[in-house]
Design a protein that fits this description.
Layout lengths: L1 H14 L12 E5 L2 E5 L2 H22 L5 H18 L1 H13 L7 H9 L1 H12 L8 H22 L5 H14 L4 H10 L4
Antiparallel strand pairs: 1-2
Helix pairs in contact: 1-2, 1-4, 2-3, 2-4, 3-7, 3-8, 6-7
Length: 196
């Protein structure tokens, strides 16, 4: 517990964040533009919110002024991987938050994702309407992409990054956007009635 509190304090002291600690609730709550974090310890709430706000700001900066929706997605993926690659202490903080506050129904990271996924789903709906992305539930797309990014962040943290975050982003984009099947194999599977 002391390690998590010290890590939280380090992040809060370095970056600061506004919070609300009402005496009428059992948990402290931090409200940011990216979402709400509530834990049983004020510093942990502040730190969790700060991690997510900093990551969200990095992604927002990377996509600002980019018109093409697919390029926005590509830049967001690169920015996400770059952010956590450059801040492994924040990945550790997410791990500590989960370890110390197991009573929470959903970790801060996933609460943040739920609170901030709306614009991405709108963007994907527009791409589907334009015929640039095949028709499927946008929740399916965002769930798979989020799981892929989240898993990559933690794999890089635990096992060490084997290639640059840029190369990882390019591999993800290639496989997600282009798939692994050749045109001939997709046609063969479609003709035989097989689903991917």
């Amino acid at each position: 517990m002391k390690r998590a509190i010290l890590a939280a304090l380090m992040v809060v002291v370095q970056n600061g964040v506004a919070y609300s600690a009402s005496r009428t609730q059992a948990r402290s709550m931090v409200i940011t533009r990216q979402g709400i974090v509530a834990t049983s310890h004020t510093l942990a709430s502040q730190a969790g919110a700060q991690v997510l706000a900093r990551g969200g700001s990095a992604v927002d900066a990377a996509i600002e002024g980019v018109g093409d929706p697919l390029e926005r997605i590509a830049r967001a993926i690169r920015a996400y991987l770059a952010f956590y690659d450059g801040h492994p202490e924040l990945v550790e903080l997410l791990i500590q938050e989960r370890a110390e506050f197991r009573d929470r129904k959903k970790p801060t990271y996933f609460e943040h994702c739920d609170a901030s996924v709306g614009p991405w789903r709108d963007l994907l709906r527009a791409l589907i309407a334009e015929g640039r992305v095949r028709k499927m539930p946008v929740e399916r797309i965002t769930d798979v992409a989020s799981d892929l990014l989240y898993g990559t962040m933690f794999t890089n943290f635990f096992a060490g990054r084997r290639k640059t975050y840029e190369a990882q982003a390019q591999d993800m984009l290639d496989i997600v956007l282009n798939g692994i099947l050749s045109d001939r194999e997709r046609a063969r599977r479609a003709a035989s009635g097989k689903k991917p």
